[in-house]
Specification:
By secondary structure, the protein is α/β, with parallel strands linked by helices. The protein folds into two domains: 3-256, Alpha-Beta Barrel (TIM Barrel), CATH 3.20.20.70; 312-389, Arc Repressor Mutant, subunit A. The chain is built from 18 helices and 16 strands. Helix 1 (40-51) runs parallel beside helix 3 (78-89), helix 1 (40-51) crosses helix 12 and helix 5 (114-120) packs parallel to helix 7.
Length: 389
Amino acid sequence: MNTALFSTIPLSLYIHIPWCERKCPYCDFNSHTAEKVIPEKKYIQALLSDLQHDLEWVHGREIGSIFIGGGTPSLLKPVSYQQLFDGLQKELSFAHDIEITLEANPGSAEQQKFTEFYDTGINRLSIGVQSFDDEMLSRLGRIHNGKDAIKAAEAAHYAGFENFNLDLMFALPGQDSHMAIKDLKYATSLEPSHISWYQLTIEPNTLFHHQPPVLPIDDQIADMQTLGQEHLANKNYQQYEISAYSQGVTCRHNLNYWKFGDYLGLGAGAHSKLCNTDNNLIIRKQRLRHPEDYMNQAHLPEVISQQRELDSSDIILEFMMNALRLNEGVSYEQFEAHTLLEIDSIQPQLELARKQELLVDNKRIQPSARGLLYLNNLLEIFMGCRKAT
């Protein structure tokens, strides 16, 4: 494999930690309630064993970002992450300015570890606040309270994290516009560099799906979104993606997803998207989902439970589902470099989307304000590529 051909396709690493203290009723991620003692040493060794299966895809390529998600990754001890990073760097090349994000809960036990996390090389936190309102948190099944959330942001500052994200949701059960904006005001007063602010959605295979809560109506949700975006803009948080707002420091890892870069996923249930430009193919892989199965088979090829090659229609739709979330969109060159397809393959769809004023009329694939508002309608145009290719 000629790894020099990969130079234009960025590469990220995702690490999945599958345990949490309690499963939230809205969560559809691969998470499992932790036992009293998490098998950290065994799991870290499994991650490093798992890496061996995909070294041919990543050798000679620089890792620009690492995202450690879950579950609740902050449940693990900092020393476990130091062991993980030491092992990874024996096989992988980290960029000198690599972004390493750890998802963290606001609980006091996790806060006490923030300084030690920082000392391992983790330089960005994403703190799952969701709300500062105790009643809202209770309805979401969260185990922290509003004071814990405030203390977590303060602890992040104290530990030295100049770059951290607060994760917030709106359109919660029983929430009105005043309550949603009050949450945002708390968040901006804590001066995070980044805020993820997004609508609660009911996903299949969750408790909320089987026992749906009463949510705000569409008009109320629209008011929340409009007022919230105005507040964030007034506090100099610039929207660069549908749910992402930044004071100049964007999330490089998520940007790589949205621009259809490559990423290697390690851990129980983790997904990968990887290109082989020699053979002009893009594949997706998934690991075994259950933590025990994953740990026991991480050294075996069977740990990769699914693998498939994407055809051109899959590639176009997946690319658009990500890239069209970005306010600035992507260039034609990025489309060709990251999909391994010619821009001519989607010209009829681009022309139709511009005719419907869903795309800006320029030399980029960039959604208009109308396109961002009616994103599903815009994506439907590219679903037609399944018939055209």
